[in-house]
Automatic annotation (TrEMBL):
This is Phage portal protein, lambda family. InterPro entries: Phage_lambda_portal. GO terms for biological process: virion assembly. Pfam families: Phage_portal_2. GO terms for molecular function: structural molecule activity.
C-alpha cells in the first residue's frame, strides 16, 4: 500500500489536498510573477521603526528643492486651513479667546491659527507633530497662563524602545502602562538635527507627561503609534521624475549652446608642427565664430556651415509628463491642477467634480485630525487655565464642564467655483427646505448669528438715513421691484380675472 500524505487542521480534521495546493486568489499566487512581491506581514509600528527617519528626511528634501512639491504643499495647507478653523463657543463673551489667539504660540512667531498651518505642514512632511500645553506664570501678563509649544517629530526617537525605570514599556519613544495607555513621551531636549549645541544645552532625553502632549498624526492602521510622512508613497516617483526633468533640461541647454558646425573639405597638415614649431593662435582656422543679428561672415575656402538641429523630445513628452504629475498629485492628495497650475482643457463641470472630491477629503482631515487632535484639546486647556486662574468666573464649570467644552469648529469656507450657479443652487436648497440658512452660512465659514446681527444693524442704519437697497427684502423683491407696487399689480390682476 502506497503511503498517503494527510494534512490535518488544529482539531485533527483532514484538509483536502486541493485546498492546500490550489490558490483560489490570483493576488495570493506564488508563481514566478508573484513569488517575491508583497510577502511581508510586518506590523504597523515595525514598518516605521527603521524607515521613519529616512522618510522624513527625504520628504523634507523634496519640499525644499522641488518647486512642484512645495507648491502642492502650500496649496494643501491653504485649502485645509486658509484663514483658520474658528471656534463657536457656548460662552457669550469671546473677547478673552480673541486676546489669547495672538499670544498662543510659545515661541511668539504665530497666532493660534498660524499654529494650525504649522501643524498641517508637519503632518505632510513628517507625518506627525507634537503639541505641548505649557502652563505659564500669571506675572508674564498673558491673557491666560497657557501657551502652545509645537515640537517636531524628530524629538521623539522612534528607535528608543526599552523598559522605563518604573517597569513600563517604552515603544518608539512613548511610555505605555500595563493597559497600553500613554503615560509619558521621552523627548530629546534639543532637536537632534541642530548643529550648534553647546555644553550648556547638551542633548538629553526628558520624559514629558502624556497629559501635556497632543500627538497629532493620521493613523492608517489599527494600533499605529507614529505617523508616516504623507509623501511616503511618491518619494521615489517624484525623485525619478525630477532627475528625468533635469536631464531633459540639461540636454536642451547643451543643444541650444551650439548654433552650428563648420566642416572642412580636407585636413591640411602643417609640416612645421612636426618640428616643434608653435603656431600663432590667431592663425588657427579651427575657431568658434560668434553669430550676431545681421552678420554675414566670410568663410575660408573649402569650409561649409551646418546649422545645429537638435532632436525634439517628441509629441508624447507632454502627455507622459502630465500622466506622471497626475500620479504625484493623487499620492499627495490634491488635484493635478492644484499641483501644476495647468488648467488646460478644464471646464466648469470637470474642475468642480475634482474640487468637490478634494474638499471632501480635506473636510475629513479637518474633522478627524486637526479639530479632534489639536484644536479641541487646546480650547479645553484654554478654558481650564482661564477658570483655574480666576480669569473666568464660572461657578459650575467643573460640575458641567462637558457642556462648556461643546465647541463647534468652523473651518474657513471655500470660494465658489462659479458664484452665480453655486449661489442659485444654495438659494433653491434653502427655499425647498433641503438646507437651513445656518448650514449655508456655516459651509461658507461664517456664523449665522453674526450674519443676522450684521444684517439687522445694516437695516437699522439704512432706515435711519432713509436708504432703500435692492438687497433689503422688506422693501424690494428679488427682481428689484418695490414690494408695495408689486402687491398692487397682483391685486389688480386678480380683480380683472
Amino acid at each position: 500500500m502506497e503511503p498517503c500524505l494527510r494534512i490535518l487542521d488544529s482539531r485533527g480534521n483532514r484538509i483536502p489536498l486541493s485546498a492546500v495546493s490550489e490558490q483560489p486568489f490570483e493576488g495570493a499566487a506564488t508563481g514566478r510573477r508573484m513569488n517575491t512581491w508583497g510577502t511581508s506581514t510586518v506590523g504597523p509600528n515595525t514598518s516605521l521603526y527603521s524607515s521613519l527617519n529616512r522618510l522624513r528626511s527625504r520628504s523634507r528634501e523634496l519640499i525644499r528643492n522641488n518647486p512642484l512639491v512645495q507648491g502642492g504643499v502650500d496649496s494643501y495647507v491653504a485649502n485645509a486651513i486658509s484663514a483658520g478653523i474658528f471656534p463657536r463657543w457656548q460662552l457669550g463673551d469671546q473677547d478673552l479667546w480673541e486676546e489669547f489667539v495672538p499670544k498662543a504660540d510659545y515661541y511668539g512667531a504665530c497666532s493660534f491659527y498660524g499654529l494650525q498651518s504649522l501643524v498641517f505642514n508637519g503632518l505632510i512632511d513628517a507625518g506627525e507633530i507634537l503639541s505641548r500645553k505649557v502652563n505659564r506664570s500669571m506675572s508674564e501678563g498673558l491673557p491666560v497662563p497657557l501657551q502652545i509649544q509645537l515640537i517636531e517629530a524628530d524629538h521623539l526617537d522612534e528607535t528608543y524602545t526599552t523598559l522605563a525605570p518604573n517597569g513600563n514599556e517604552i515603544r518608539m519613544g512613548i511610555e505605555l502602562d500595563r493597559e497600553n495607555r500613554r503615560r509619558f513621551y521621552w523627548l530629546w531636549s534639543e532637536h537632534p538635527g541642530e548643529s550648534f549645541l553647546t555644553s550648556r544645552n547638551i542633548n538629553r532625553r526628558i520624559s514629558v507627561p502624556a497629559r501635556e502632549i497632543d500627538h497629532v498624526y493620521r493613523p492608517i492602521r489599527a494600533g499605529q503609534m507614529r505617523g508616516r510622512p504623507w509623501l511616503a508613497s511618491i518619494i521615489v516617483k517624484i525623485h525619478e521624475y525630477d532627475l528625468y526633468d533635469d536631464a531633459e533640461l540639461v540636454r536642451k541647454k547643451g543643444a541650444a549652446m551650439f548654433g552650428g558646425f563648420i566642416e572642412e573639405d580636407a585636413v591640411q597638415i602643417d609640416p612645421a608642427n612636426y618640428f616643434g614649431k608653435k603656431k600663432d593662435p590667431d592663425s588657427d582656422s579651427r575657431k568658434v565664430l560668434a553669430l550676431e543679428p545681421g552678420t554675414f561672415p566670410i568663410l575660408p575656402q573649402g569650409k561649409k556651415v551646418h546649422f545645429s538641429e537638435p532632436a525634439d523630445v517628441g509629441a508624447s513628452y507632454e502627455m507622459w509628463t502630465r500622466q506622471q504629475l497626475r500620479q504625484i498629485a493623487t499620492g499627495l492628495g490634491i488635484t493635478y491642477e492644484q499641483l501644476t497650475g495647468d488648467l488646460t482643457g478644464v471646464n466648469y463641470s470637470s474642475i468642480r467634480a475634482g474640487l468637490l472630491e478634494f474638499r471632501r477629503r480635506v473636510q475629513q482631515l479637518q474633522l478627524e485630525i486637526l479639530i479632534f487632535q489639536f484644536c479641541q484639546p487646546v480650547a479645553e486647556a484654554f478654558l481650564d487655565a482661564a477658570v483655574l486662574s480666576g480669569i473666568l468666573g464660572i461657578r459650575d464649570y467643573y460640575r458641567n464642564r462637558r457642556n462648556y467644552v461643546k465647541i463647534q469648529w468652523r473651518p474657513d469656507g471655500w470660494p465658489w467655483v462659479d458664484p452665480v450657479k453655486d449661489q442659485l443652487a444654495e438659494q433653491m436648497a434653502v427655499r425647498n427646505g433641503f438646507k437651513s440658512r445656518a448650514q449655508v452660512v456655516a459651509e461658507r465659514g461664517g456664523d449665522v448669528e453674526t450674519v443676522d446681527r450684521e444684517i439687522a444693524e445694516d437695516n437699522a442704519r439704512a432706515d435711519r438715513f432713509g436708504l432703500v437697497y435692492d438687497s433689503d427684502p422688506r422693501y424690494m423683491t428679488k427682481s428689484g421691484v418695490v414690494q408695495k407696487a408689486e402687491e398692487t399689480v397682483l391685486a389688480a390682476t386678480a380683480q380683472t380675472e
